[in-house]
Every structure is written in structure tokens, then in C-alpha cells.
Amino acid sequence: MRRRASLVLLAFAVFFAALSPLLRWYAFPRLAKIPPSQYQEVVMEAKPATLLDYNDGMKVKKVPKVTIVQTLKGNVEESERIERSAGRDVVVWDALSYVVGPDGKMVSEIPERYIFDAHSQAPVHATGEMVDGDPVRREGIEFKWPFLTEKRDYEYFDAQARTSSPIHYKGIRTFHGLEVYYFEQTIPWTRVPMPKKMPIQGVSPEQIASTGMTRWYSTKRMFWVDPVTGAPVNGEEIHKEELRNARKMGMPEDTMTVFAGHVKMRPDYVESTVDLVRSQRLLVLLLTSYLPWGFLVTGAGLLALALWLEARSRRPAAPPDPVPAPVPTPA
How many Å apart are CA 185 and CA 187, to the nearest integer? Predict the structure, then answer.
């Protein structure tokens, strides 16, 4: 009976020991994915800021606030179309960065289409990948880090410059009770294209470019990233934009600040993002840590119990007690 029980326990021990790496290395890459229909909105603010007022004689003004609304909307139809040729799970995000001044009027509007692998977040190059209508070929990540982010530098795509450059790992921080990785990227002054949609009615970027006026941009980008999910829980930018050779358009100065300010996530969006990441990181930890290690420990415990029962079943039985000799009855 003990031998039969030890064989059953041994079978369960092998099952749990095999399930541990299977869950981590086979199930995790297939189950931990960005859903193709995800929708996310983030509101960021620069308070105060410097802004070029196109509607008041092209004057540079100090304003109390500039608001940036960034939306990411999953395009399921395009994801399914690209998946058929790519042979893997693909996510297509249609992104929009919409900047408004303190009067509620549009300052700039930059659409993007970002196509990437649903699990690794590596870019997938396909027709439709673009920034503000211009075809691009991304290298590295954008918006999100991979699951189980590493303590190292990553290539990060800059939508304004249309190029990728390193974003540097700067260490561990504690943010709203979460242990996160802090990253920084600095983009030096770089000439960038004019937005396709201008805040001045009847003026196109081609008309501005024909005058010789150019647009330049620089930023210091900062992210606080949850290393389990790879999701940024906070982001900031020290952002600067200028128009150079501006006198060719009749402006009073040759270099005009278009926008300058320290852009930060609005506190209520920080709170909602942290809450969302807390709920998602538990699912990732179950697949990568809690369940694999739990199954491994369970398998080791069952194996030890099976070996103990097997050892007990192999012990020789104790000899029976001797039968006492009968006592003769006197006549």
C-alpha cells in the first residue's frame, strides 16, 4: 500500500516540476500580451509655460498652463490584417498628441500609428507605420517597455525627430509605494518637420518651409517604469521648441520660442495609472514567479514524501515474538 502511494506522489511530483518551467517559458510569452483593443488617455500639463501666440501678432507669451492630451487607441482591424502576414500577435496603436493653450485653442496636433509585437513590444514594420502622415521605420520601443524590464539602456523612438536614441537606466526609485526603474533621455537641439496641421488658418507647412524658416526641438524625457509590466507609471518632459530664421516670415526676432515648459502628468491620471499597473502586475507575477516557484516547491515536497514512503516500504519486517514453551502438567 505504501509503495502504491509513493508511486502516485512521485507522478504528481514530476507533473508539478515539469509544469513550473512550462508555465514560465511557454505559457508566459503566450498569455502576457497587450490586448489589441486597448484604449488609454493621459492628460499632461506644463504650468507655467512659454507659448507663441499665433493669433496675437505672433508674440511670445508667458501663460499659466499648456495642456497635452495623449490618446492611444487599439486598431483591431489593422492588427488582424498585419497578423496574417507577420505570423505573430501584433498590436496597432493609433496615437494622437493634442496640445491646447490656456484659451482652449489648438496649438499642435500630431497623429501616429505605432505597430509592435504584443508580447515583446518590439516594433513590427508594416504599411501604415507613420508619424504625422510621414512614413517611418521605428527602432526600439515607444510608449511602453517590455514585460520584465531589465536594468539597462533601451533604444527609444522620438516622434518629433523621427529617430531612435538610447534612453538611459538611472536606477531604482520608489513611486507611490511601487519600486520602479527610472529612465532618462536627452534629445539635443534637432531640426524637425513642421506639423501638417498648423494653428494658422490657410498656412501650410510647405509655405513656411519655402521661406527658409525652420523648426527646432530639444527635450529631456523622464520615465518611472514598473519593471514587472513595463508600463510607465509617470512621465515628464522638459520641452523646448523654436522657430529659426523667423524674420523671413516677418516675425520680430530671428529665433522665436514656440513652446517651452516642464510637462508633467496630471495628478489624477498618475493615480489611475498606478492603480491600473498594480492590478496588472499581479497577473504577470503569477505567471513568472508565484506559480512557477510554487509548483517547483510543491514538486520537491511531493518527491521527498514519495521517497520517504518508498524507504519505509522497503524496511524488513520485525521478527515475530517467540512462542513460549508449554508448561508440563503434573500427574
Answer: 7
